[in-house]
Amino acid sequence: MPEPQYGDPDREYQLSATESDVMVAGGESYNGWTYNGEYPGPEIRAVEGERVRVTIENDLPEETTIHWHGMVLDGDNAMDGVPGVTQTAIEPGEEFVYEFDAEPAGTHWYHSHVGLQLDRELLGPLIIEERNPHIEYDTEATLVLDEYLPTEPRVETSSGTGGGMGGMGGMGGSGFPDAPPAEGTLINGRLPDDPTPVDVEEGSRIRLRLINAAAAATYEIGIGDHELVVTHTDGPAVEPVSVDTLEIGPGERYDAVVEARSPGTWPIRVRPVNKSTSAGRALLDYDQSTGDVTEGEIGSRQLRLSDLHAIDDLDEYRGEPDRTIDLTLSGGMMGGDGDEWTIGGQAYPDADPISIEEGEHVRFRMANRSPMRHPMHLHGHHFVVGDALKDTVIVPGHMGEITIDFVADNPGTWFFHCHHLYHMETGMAREIPYEQ
Ligand code: C2O
Ligand code: CU
């Protein structure tokens, strides 16, 4: 891999964060906040190892920042976009220049890291092409999954009885800070009655880049009569594994290759598993197809975490850690306080930083003491979970437990939080500072 270049960047992009009308389907639009008037925002693309410069102009009535979700930003903590932590937020009317190395390769995304702005649609795909892909494919398509929330985002209180909570119905009327109910599921900004077409040619292989940009919904994705060969998670490559469906939590990404062997037009179904919102849909559309949709069957083999085996050598993450930290995830009534979400009993910003030292192999043992799943995301690093290298992982509801290992090899102050935006906003976050 070439040395990163300094001086002139290899790729330059200009973004302006603005209020704009967002068109979601056949004539339906609402007033959202976007980059360059587009939703999803313009794709930013580079080849791994390149230097990327993005200038953002803030035309919003509030301050903003951009976080490059998936970039490790080696030596570039100041480019991480966390307001009050890695930079001062960009005031209305001001500009800010972000510059970073495109590392690692993969399907990533960028989004505002201020308040609930992510749920106003300030987000877009960030694609870093690998120099030597471990899989073969002919074409690719990026699918950005999101909730349709045509109103202003605000924290609401839910009972935790939504779909997928499995048996915790009621909870004695306890309240959990949650997202407002969404009005539908969007794929690349379109509702199911005006689906995004994904064109394929019979006999070809298409690489789907899946990004869950939703603030709260975990989705299950599957395609009628087609298998998904999962090839990457959160950027890093995995040994290809064939499944019928996969679950993707807020902030997570998966790449899957689909072999186009059954001519026709088939639904790509995106079903929220922790919300009662209706499913989203795109169409896998073969070149010779008449356009009539055949529903087909979506099988029951769902991807498990244990199916994921990183291609990268994980040796540095193995063995006994230098430091092990136990983190309890709780909130609402379970945590004793009705209006916040906590990590280790503390709600950010009134929470201690997690202290670690540079060079350490760190282990987090997360235990979920709430009925809701928490997609936990670590900035500036990838971590090992099971046998996979990821940056965001769902800690299942109820007594779910997940252990992650990472190496503190990138000094700075890094954010660690739940990517359910409304959980983060009500306390489920910590800072992890360490110096050289
Ligand atoms: Cu995708 Cu801290 O975020
Ligand atoms: Cu959460």
Feature tags:
3 domains; globular; disordered N terminus; binds copper (II) ion; Immunoglobulin-like; 436 residues; mainly beta
Can you tell me about this structure?
With 436 residues, the protein is an all-beta fold. Strand 16 (228-233) and strand 17 form a beta hairpin. The protein contains 1 helix and 31 strands. The chain folds into 3 domains: 11-131, Cupredoxins -  blue copper proteins (Immunoglobulin-like), CATH 2.60.40.420; 183-307, Immunoglobulin-like; 315-434, Sandwich (Immunoglobulin-like). The model is unreliable at 1-5 and 161-173 (pLDDT under 50). Strands 12-9-14-19-16-17 form a 6-stranded mixed sheet, with no helix packed on it. It has a 5-stranded mixed sheet with strand order 13-21-20-15-18, with no helix packed on it. The chain has one helix spanning 421-425; strands spanning 11-25, 28-35, 44-47, 51-58, 67-69, 95-101, 106-111, 123-129, 139-147, 156-158, 176-178, 185-187, 196-200, 205-212, 219-223, 228-233, 237-243, 245-248, 253-259, 265-272, 280-286, 323-331, 341-343, 361-368, 374-378, 383-385, 388-390, 392-395, 401-407, 412-418, 429-434. The structure holds CU-O-CU linkage and copper (II) ion (CU). CU-O-CU linkage binds next to strand 5 and strand 30. The site of copper (II) ion has 6 residues, from loops.
